[in-house]
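Q: For a teaching session next week I want to show students how multiple molecules come together into a single three-dimensional assembly. I've collected the sequence lines for a complex. Could you give me the predicted structure tokens for the whole thing so I can convert them for display?
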Amino acid sequence: MNQVTAIKGRSLPAEFADLDKYLDWALPTERARSRKRLASSMEEIKAFYDDMLARIEPALDYLNGFPLDDMPEPQQNLLNLTLMLAEVANAVELFKTQPGVIDGFDPERFITDHEGGGD
Amino acid sequence: MEQTEHKRFSQKFPELGTDPIPVANSVSPEFFAKEKERIFKRSWINVGRAEELRKPGDYIVKKMDMWDTSILLVRGRDGELRAFHNVCQHRGNLLVGDSEKGNCKGFMTCKFHGWVYDDAGKLRDVPDEENFHNLDKATLGLKPIALDTWLGFIFVNLRPEQSLADYLGGYVNEKLNAYPFDRLGTFYTYAPDEAVNWKVLLDAQQEGYHVPSLHKRTLSLSFPKEFVRFRSQDMILHGPHRILSAGSNAGEFVPTPVGAVASKIGANSIDAFAGAAGGDMSAYAEAMHGVFDFNVIFPNFVIGLLYGTYFTYNIWPIAVNRSIWEIRMYYPTAHNASQAFTNEYGKVAFRDGLMEDASVHEATQRGIESGAIENFQFQDEEILCRHGHLTVQRMVNG
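A: Of course. Below is the structure for the complete assembly, covering every listed component.
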């Protein structure tokens, strides 16, 4: 997938304007998404998680109509929101009392944005 | 094997014994220096996959601290993959130093005096050559290093004493050959630099005893509900190499809400650990012993096979108490948003589990350096740790 930073735009596709309040969560890299997760409160994470989970399947179905490596900005923002749901899933579903891994290794020393291979 | 039986593997491998194993070899700088000479410089070491160098001129620099050198992997214009010491034959400068990888377009130039080598390692041009004394360019190509591939994995050996096929031995004709690696062409990397001995790091990963405790909030979900004792399905030894295989929990596994969205699209690490990855997994099942096969290729390379995804670990020893844990997670290359999403879910869900693993590495190293503990006490499920330490001892001490 396209790891080139997508400029944080001002919009989502019109069909998903209900998620506009979460544009700050539409971040282009794993490192940025992890930092956002760790800097948020559980209340904020849960609100995003609930609203995004309700729209995830329609969002992915919609996005499957666009080329993954060349998405227009609003669609790229929506894609980044779906990836953000993947990032916060564990916080809500597993750890529950805090955003990050409980007693885990320092994420700043662990998380990179490296992707290789591809066909 | 009965899943609640005790001491199964010490009965299967009586030659490994049951004594405690001293911590000394994991804290001694002298022993580490011997490991470099007697193990790392004589073993076939994995340095990636052939697909990372597809086009003629593609190169990758690998810093090989345990070999005290830097190496260059290059795909020649003749299609051959070669390895060289990344050292200019003029006065020893690092030939390719400015970037880890790229395409050299046929030629590599040393920035010191402008000597030029081609993508087969031959010395092609020396500026002001006539001012040298009897310079024989034909003898001054880059110094080659033995390279061979197996199932697309690239191995190099500084001082080969046997072919890669002989080194792998029983692995070569094993089920592993049938695993569909080519379906899983994209990888994501993590590479934490940790204050831990390479063997201590590997030990933390090559047993399932820790799963119910350390991973109670994460990976335990992929295993049986009343899960307090981990029982491997099997363990297999091939000389210095070893495999741990875990059985299926597919009947009991329930994904989380986000996990369920991912699982509908494709396999991810979490459903795969449970053996619950959806779709036609027969190509994977036929190539594996269990639903999760943790393959250790001595000394420091792990191939962790699952249905629909796999991961590798290269544990790079830097010092007796410093290692880089290079983790790669391999997934089908995403061509649409759904696959990108399910890859991301698998990657970060597994990543969080690995951050639980890493959280004990440095503390364990400090603990064994403190003098507070003389021996590792290894139980039956930790027998691969025992096998690792005994193999290392044998190779170092002769």
